[in-house]
């Protein structure tokens, strides 16, 4: 009855595809990014001719430079401000629409649900180009301010695109949770004399907290990754520098300035911060949202 | 370690990491049967038609065009591909990007194959591809001498005269605004560093130079500051618009006559045709306004060469194609007629294809003869090894200066500092 070495290898054979893929597409790129971030290019003399550029070990100098860059922090602050407005507005609107659509007397619910969800199906670049056209005073049919892409309103111009594209998705997440609530709960509430508004605020909203948390996590991640909208709008205005958000700075460093080492260092910093924020957020809300489920 | 990692080209894009595997391109040289296959990255208009001519007359060397996005993006793409070992055999390289390519070991030295090509080009043009060394890093394709384009009908309507100096240009801009508040003479664009570089060349700026084994950076020189403050003054006064070029808004402004003039380059008719087709026949081209009356100088906006990758296995065949493409009468004529570019090769500039004006400006029958005269007055400069950094700094700092209503010469100073610091940080020997 003793198991031979062949049998012991079986589980590993089953695991191998996952392990190999994980190593190839996750571990190796991360490892290479770390490697890049610890090196830098060194040029000798005029930097012309063969072999004038060598890669040298730089230690943590790239990280020091990335963290010392004022643009990086200005961009980070911008993203914080963006998130401070985006997250509550997004969740508020998504919750509002979901509750309205879930009302028993809601009309054209099916049509409205699809209409609100539809912008989510529009790719970010297309949405940004579309709104970019709508923001330009000479082209827009809408009564937007002439300096919609000026320094004062720019943040709101970007926010609007994010909201337009994101509310529908989060609404569907919340609506799905609402539909899962058993009808008896409402019945008994109505028997107790609960108005629809009270049902929405006192019964539905607390019951769908896990869905709200989920939508919150998605929105926080979307905030930290804001890139497409400002990058697409940048050529249309004087007020949107190439380092408007930290991710844009990473792109500029890597693909415009050709400094892949600084970009790698900044990427690692952003990844660590994102991870820390996500874990922190989930820890904070875990008790409420997942009713003691271990994370 | 590096050998194992090399096939994996990992680029960190924020929290998300993308990975792609690369394989070596290109086939075997000689030996095996079948034609040599060359890949060519370019964005030149209708270049496929020119390449088809080569392919039908050269069965042993087959060139395949891969259409790319313009300018800066292609620079990065080629540099990344070169690091990954899968760069194309040939690619289009703007003159200002060549030192960057050379400094990154991305281009092959063609001096063994291109000896005879030198005589086909003006010395100034040839110097752009040798960088003043004995090497030949590319074959010149086209150049973009700058000229002033204006709307003849609107100039007449508002009673304006064509400015011959920049002082007159400023006076014209003011005169127009005195008559109407809905039009501008032109716009200052924070999005187009190549345009500003051309203006600085005309004024006598020298953004980079080489002294022995040391680079010099001179972006903050008197000529460039003069150009910057001239435009900054007009923008602050409100007599020149400050919206970037190449936006939907700009297209509309050119089409509906909101903008009356465009200091641009020889390829402008093609751009105008695509963004403002309804204004056909309403434009005229004249030499750029001058800094002092009676002078005859202009700068270059754009202009490209054809380079061969350092890791191309068919460098000889690629060089032959690059020379054919840019000097053979059959090719240059097609480049002019199909691609609407102004060829760099001397013979091609007086070739039959340039006898007629561009269709968009058919009224100006002497368009190309006049253009040739202007092209001969174009002054260039040495491009540095980090033009990409300087150009990005231009976009960010001039955008900020316009937004904050700050003096443009301050923006030039920041641009200078950013460029210089980048070179120092990378280890270049540099002064400035």
Structure description:
Chain A is built from twelve helices and two strands, in the order H-E-E-H-H-H-H-H-H-H-H-H-H-H. The relative contact order of chain A is 0.12. Chain A is mostly helical and 295 residues long. Chain B is of the alpha/beta class and 432 residues long. Chain B has two domains: 183 residues, Periplasmic binding protein-like II (D-Maltodextrin-Binding Protein, domain 2, 3-Layer(aba) Sandwich), CATH 3.40.190.10; 204 residues, D-Maltodextrin-Binding Protein, domain 2 (3-Layer(aba) Sandwich). Helix content of chain B is 42%, strand content 15%. In chain B, the strands form four sheets. In chain B, strands 4-3-5-12-6 form a five-stranded mixed sheet, sandwiched between helices. Chain B has a three-stranded antiparallel sheet with strand order 10-7-11. In chain B, helix 8 crosses helix 9 and helix 16 packs antiparallel against helix 17. The relative contact order of chain B is 0.17. Chains A and B meet through helix 1, strand 1, helix 11 and helix 12 of A and strand 1, strand 2, helix 3, helix 4 and helix 10 of B.
């Amino acid at each position: 009855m003793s198991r031979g070495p062949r049998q012991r290898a079986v589980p590993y054979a089953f695991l191998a595809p996952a392990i190999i893929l994980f190593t190839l597409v996750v571990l190796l790129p991360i490892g290479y990014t770390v490697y890049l971030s610890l090196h830098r290019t060194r040029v000798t003399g005029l930097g012309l001719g063969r072999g004038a550029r060598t890669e040298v070990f730089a230690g943590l100098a790239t990280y020091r430079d990335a963290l010392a860059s004022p643009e990086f922090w200005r961009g980070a602050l911008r993203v914080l401000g963006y998130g401070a407005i985006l997250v509550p507005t997004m969740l508020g609107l998504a919750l509002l629409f979901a509750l309205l659509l879930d009302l028993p007397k809601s009309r054209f619910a099916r049509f409205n649900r699809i209409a609100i969800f539809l912008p989510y199906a529009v790719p970010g670049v297309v949405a940004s180009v579309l709104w970019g056209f709508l923001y330009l005073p000479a082209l827009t049919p809408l009564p937007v301010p002439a300096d919609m892409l000026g320094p004062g309103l720019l943040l709101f111009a970007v926010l609007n695109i994010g909201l337009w594209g994101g509310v529908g998705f989060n609404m569907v997440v919340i609506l799905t949770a609402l539909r899962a609530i058993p009808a008896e709960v409402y019945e008994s509430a109505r028997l107790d004399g609960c108005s629809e508004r009270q049902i929405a605020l006192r019964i539905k909203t607390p019951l769908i907290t896990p869905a709200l948390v989920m939508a919150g996590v998605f929105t926080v991640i979307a905030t930290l990754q804001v890139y497409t909208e400002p990058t697409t709008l940048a050529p249309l205005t004087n007020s949107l520098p190439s380092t408007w958000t930290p991710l844009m700075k990473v792109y500029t460093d890597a693909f415009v300035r050709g400094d892949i080492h600084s970009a790698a260092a900044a990427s690692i910093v952003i990844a660590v911060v994102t991870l820390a924020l996500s874990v922190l957020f989930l820890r904070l809300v875990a008790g409420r949202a997942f009713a003691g489920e271990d994370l | 370690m590096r050998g194992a990692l090399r096939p994996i080209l990992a680029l960190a894009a924020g929290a998300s990491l993308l990975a792609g595997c690369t394989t070596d391109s290109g086939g075997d040289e000689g030996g095996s049967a079948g034609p040599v296959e060359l890949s060519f990255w370019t964005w030149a208009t209708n270049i496929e038609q020119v390449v088809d001519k080569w392919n039908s007359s050269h069965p042993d060397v087959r060139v395949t065009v891969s259409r790319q996005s313009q300018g800066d993006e292609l620079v990065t793409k080629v540099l990344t591909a070169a690091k990954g070992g899968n760069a194309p055999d040939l690619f289009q390289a703007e003159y200002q990007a060549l030192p960057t390519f050379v400094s990154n070991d991305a281009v092959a030295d063609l001096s063994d194959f291109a000896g005879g090509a030198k005589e086909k080009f003006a010395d100034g043009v040839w110097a752009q591809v040798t960088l003043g060394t004995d090497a030949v890093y590319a074959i010149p394709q086209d150049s973009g001498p700058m000229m002033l384009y204006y709307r003849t009908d609107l100039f007449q309507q508002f009673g304006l005269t064509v400015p011959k100096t920049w002082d007159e240009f400023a006076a014209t801009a003011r005169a127009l605004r005195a008559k109407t508040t809905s039009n501008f003479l032109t716009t200052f664009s924070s999005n187009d560093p190549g345009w500003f570089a051309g203006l600085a060349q005309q004024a006598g700026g020298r953004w980079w130079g080489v002294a022995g084994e040391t680079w010099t950076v001179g972006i903050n020189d008197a000529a460039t500051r003069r150009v910057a403050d001239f435009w900054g003054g007009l923008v602050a006064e409100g007599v020149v618009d400050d919206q970037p070029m190449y936006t939907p808004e700009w297209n509309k402004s050119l089409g509906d006559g909101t903008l009356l003039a465009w200091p641009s380059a020889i390829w402008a008719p093609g751009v105008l045709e695509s963004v403002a087709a309804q204004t056909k026949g309403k434009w005229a081209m004249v030499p750029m306004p001058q800094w002092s009356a009676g002078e005859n100088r202009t700068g270059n906006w754009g202009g490209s060469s054809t380079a061969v990758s350092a890791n191309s296995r068919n460098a000889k065949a690629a060089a032959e194609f690059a020379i054919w493409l840019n000097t053979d009468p059959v090719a240059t004529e097609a480049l002019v007629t199909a691609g609407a570019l102004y060829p760099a090769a001397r013979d091609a500039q007086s070739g039959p294809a340039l006898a007629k004006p561009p269709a968009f400006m058919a009224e100006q029958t002497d368009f190309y003869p006049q253009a040739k005269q202007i092209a001969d007055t174009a002054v260039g400069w040495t491009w540095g090894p980090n033009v990409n950094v300087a150009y990005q700094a231009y976009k960010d700092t001039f955008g900020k200066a316009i937004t904050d209503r700050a003096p443009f010469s301050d923006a030039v100073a920041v641009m200078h500092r950013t460029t210089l610091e980048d070179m120092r940080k990378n280890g270049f020997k540099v002064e400035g």
